[in-house]
Amino acid sequence: MIKILIIEDEPNMRLGLKDNLEFESYEVESADDGETGLQKILDDNFNLVLLDVMLPKLSGFEVCKAVRKKGLTVPIILLTAKGEEIDKVLGLELGADDYVTKPFSIRELLARIKAVLRRGENFVSSLSSENKIKIGLLQVNFDSYNAFSDDEPVQMSHKEFEILYYLWKHRNRTVSRDDLLQEIWGYEESPTTRTVDNFILKLRQKIEKEPNHPQIILTVHGIGYKLVD
Ligand code: CA
């Protein structure tokens, strides 16, 4: 059974979501503040987390950051308020997988949940045959979402793994920013290409000997990037 955690302080929203998701045969747990929510994520094994941004004790961003810092890859969908564009970009950079903007329809949310769960499955199954791969300074295991540098674990978000895997799968070929947006974010209301660039900068910090003079993830001006092997 697919287990979903809802972290939302507004009682009506929390209960409404719980009812709807249970109706769709998901197993649902909930928390009404960031601290309790984070503890539940760490203690249990959820398939997906719905995470409100404005929360008592710890904000959704702080929860997201803490979860990724622990190396947990559980998919996170942020529930953001209308007009907070900055939240979306920041949330995705902190390792959230998707977001919906309040007010949203339950249909829209269910579609996002299914898409995120499906992406996770595809990601895992498409990786099962490949083990540790050396990319620059990194040793990456795409099966277990682990990365090491000189045998020291390296912190990487789910998105960073996905982007790196996509580049690696298309290595020695140019991948456009739009390809990455389509493939990794995969919905109409995409974040900007700037978001892609920011992720590439983060990956270079981990992969390249000299991140300012990249030898592995090259910039193809006006188009995108190329990972050279
Ligand atoms: Ca709230």
Please specify the SSE layout and strand pairing:
Elements: E1 3-7, H1 11-23, E2 27-31, H2 34-43, E3 48-52, H3 60-69, E4 76-80, H4 85-93, E5 98-101, H5 106-127, E6 132-135, E7 138-141, E8 146-149, E9 152-153, H6 158-169, E10 174-176, H7 177-185, H8 193-207, E11 217-220, E12 224-227
This protein binds calcium ion (CA).
Calcium ion (CA) is lined by residues 9-10, 52, 54-55.
Question: What keywords describe this structure?
Answer:
229 residues, 4-stranded antiparallel sheet, 44% helix, globular, binds calcium ion
Small molecules held by this entry: calcium ion
Question: What is the distance, rounded to the nearest whole angstrom, between the alpha carbons of the first and last residues?
Answer: 40 Å
Question: How many domains make up the 3D coordinates?
Answer: 2
Radius of gyration over alpha carbons?
18 Å
Strand content: 15-25%
CATH architectural designation of the largest domain: 3-Layer(aba) Sandwich
Which sheet architecture does the biggest sheet show?
5 strands, parallel
Strand order of the largest sheet: 2-1-3-4-5
Instruction: State the shape.
Output: globular
Quaternary arrangement of the chains shown? single chain
Helix % is 40-55%
| Count of runs of 4 or more consecutive helical residues | 8
Poorly predicted parts: 125-130
Class derived from helix and strand content: alpha/beta
Q: H/E series, N to C? A: EHEHEHEHEHEEEEHEHHEE
What is the number of strand segments? Answer: 12
Q: What value does the average pLDDT take?
A: 87
The CATH topology of the largest domain turns out to be: Rossmann fold
CATH class of the largest domain: Alpha Beta
Question: CATH H-level name of the largest domain... which superfamily?
Answer: Response regulator
